[in-house]
Design a protein that fits this description.
Blueprint: E1 17-22, E2 28-33, E3 61-64, H1 71-77, H2 83-90, H3 92-95, E4 107-110, E5 140-141, E6 160-163, E7 169-171, E8 176-183, E9 189-195, E10 200-209, E11 216-217, E12 222-226, E13 237-242, E14 250-251, H4 253-259
């Protein structure tokens, strides 16, 4: 017979069940359901996995060309995917048609294609001389380009002569790099500058020079003073535009300046 007395209620034993909740991406996640002795039930937020945000693409950066740089060297140093050809393709509007002609100070975009320069199609080409200037101020033209004569070894005058007295400041017509500066035979003291478009400007018969080979110059920077050194009959500036740094590659300097918005 059962013992007398009150029946003891069996202790309520905690129990646990699980439910399956679909997680992010379709994966199943088992969550416990707490019994009466448990704490608060899990909130809906607990059933979701944390999704990391996708990493943002690397931002493009700008690189300023230094002396001795080449597109190949820059591409290697900057880890450009696609090498110098990709770098050139992205910056062709700034570099120009010849990828080997990059000058110190030129800005290159690394990581994406550079934006094309903004132009105003309605503006006349000669309306602005931004980036270019005359090599001397308030000077008259002495001997014009292509003037024929036996006094010149080529049979004609290879540049334009600006009639100025000795000591007149001579200016760089545009930014570039000095490729030579010093005495050069019949030209006397001369400076030759390579520009971003691949052309070269030459300034001859100077009395003194204030720049040296390899130096980067800005538009309008003083190169020296005019004079009468070399084979001359009087003080003036002999000015040429060339396709190479050497004699014999001359083009019309007046036409070149006009094409860049500078009138003689």
């Amino acid at each position: 017979m059962p013992a007398k007395g009150k029946h003891r209620r069996p202790k309520s034993q905690g129990f646990a069940r699980t439910i399956v909740v679909a997680g992010v991406g379709g994966a199943a996640l088992a969550l416990p359901l707490l019994g009466a002795t448990g704490a608060h039930a899990a909130t809906p937020a607990a059933a979701h996995s944390v999704v990391k945000a996708a990493a943002a693409p690397a931002a493009a950066k700008t690189y300023a060309v230094k002396g001795g740089d080449t597109l190949s060297k820059i591409a290697v140093a900057q880890n450009v995917s696609g090498g110098w050809k990709k770098l050139y393709s992205d910056n062709r509007s700034a570099v120009g048609d010849n990828p080997s002609l990059i000058h110190p100070g030129l800005k290159l975009t690394i990581g994406q294609k550079a934006a094309a320069p903004v132009t105003q199609a309605s503006a006349p080409k000669a309306a602005t001389g931004a980036g270019y200037t005359l090599p001397v101020r308030s000077a008259s033209i002495g001997t014009a380009y292509k003037t024929a004569g036996s006094m010149w070894s080529s049979g004609y005058h290879t540049g334009v002569d600006f009639v100025v007295p000795t000591g007149t400041p001579i200016k760089a017509i545009a930014a570039g790099t000095v490729v030579s500066a010093g005495l050069d035979g019949a030209y006397g003291n001369e400076v030759v500058i390579q520009h971003a478009d691949g052309k070269y400007s030459q300034y001859a018969h100077m009395s003194s020079l204030s720049v040296s080979s390899g130096q980067t110059v800005t538009v309008g920077q003083q190169l020296g003073l005019s004079g009468a050194t070399g084979n001359v009959t009087g003080p003036h500036l002999h000015f040429e535009i060339r396709t190479t740094p050497s004699y014999g590659s001359d083009v019309d300097p007046a036409a070149y300046l006009r094409a860049h918005g500078v009138s003689l």
